[in-house]
Design goal:
The structure is a single chain. By secondary structure, the chain is mainly beta. It has one domain: Porin (Beta Barrel). It has an 8-stranded antiparallel beta barrel. About 4% of the residues have low confidence.
Amino acid sequence: MNRVFLPLLFTIFTLLLISKENFAQFIPKEKPQEVASMSRFYWESSFGLQIGGITNVEISPALGYTLVKNFSAGVGISYIFYQNNYYVPAYRTNIFGGSTYLRYQIIDRFLIQGEVQLLNYDSFDDFTGEKIRKTVPGYLLGVGYRQWFSDKMFGDIFLLWNFNDVNDYPYNNPILRITFGGFIKG
């Protein structure tokens, strides 16, 4: 009986598997919209200008990449010419820097950004009075708002807070930043 029962059971089981494939409903999966890798890249830049007793000229371009929907990362560089005419002689320095950031779009146009920034500039040693080159980190976190000008061009305004607020950092809390940018292709 076992000799007949086992092959019969095996045959029925195999036919059920085959028939399931034949009667199953075929639902094609939606292909995810293919996004060219270049369309995920975007550029942005901020420009600052202050003229008077303190002169501050800043240019800060950045390149970002959309990792997944609503989440992006980027790197940027900064150049700032700074002159304080209240000192005699006037204090001047060229500030060079770099930054990396993560940005998340919470809802429609509202953003959260975390950023690590390093700024390098001439400073005076408190003990010797000599000029020394100093690198100061900034750990920034804040919120922003994005305004779209077209399907590729945008402007952002951020209110950032430096959690490493030391006297050596050239900006005071809060930091207001306005940037303009756009997606490269797509």
